[in-house]
Amino acid sequence: MFVAYLSTPPEGTGESAKGLVGKDFEYYLNKELGGEGSRQVGGRDFDGVKGNRWWEAKSGQYWEMLESDSKKILKFKSDMGDRLNIAKQNGATYELFSNTPIPQSIKDWLTKKGIPFTEILD
């Protein structure tokens, strides 16, 4: 079951993902990728969906916050794994987008789990 959330344009969003945080970055991705907005499937939120391509968006100081607490890293990995499984069960792919550099340890983990990631740094 899909639950749709409407996205409205953030104030001052230009053509760059740089500096966008939270919903502003999610809106940018949905606009750039032709997404249909966020969805809730299987009790998990997905920041963007376009057909069978689903994604998560991370922005701002997220990675610094994550790396400062090992419990948060474990929760991130658990949440990402759950979303990957839900996407696969629904015939979709799942990937991660970030507008800040992803730590190498997280890149290594994502690669190991088969979760593609893209850094949009300009």
Keyword list:
122 residues, alpha/beta, four-stranded mixed beta sheet, three-stranded antiparallel beta sheet, 39% helix, 23% strand, globular
Would you write up a description of this structure?
The chain is of the alpha/beta class and 122 residues long. Helix content is 39%, strand content 23%. The chain has 4 helices and 7 strands. It has a 4-stranded mixed sheet with strand order 4-5-6-7, with helices on both faces. The chain has a 3-stranded antiparallel sheet with strand order 1-2-3, covered by helices on one side. Strand 2 and strand 3 (44-46) form a beta hairpin. The longest helix is centred in the middle third of the chain and has 20 residues, at 70-89. The termini are far apart.
What's the average pLDDT? Answer: 88
The strand line-up of the biggest sheet is 4-5-6-7
Q: Give the tally of β-strands.
A: 7
The helicity comes to: 25-40%
Give the helix/strand class: alpha/beta
The stretches of 5 or more residues where confidence is low (pLDDT under 50) are 1-13
Distance between the termini: 35 Å
Please state the CA-atom Rg, rounded to the nearest Å: 14 Å
Main pleated sheet: 4 strands, mixed
Number of helices: 4
> Approximately how much beta-strand content do the residues carry?
15-25%
Shape by Cα distribution: globular
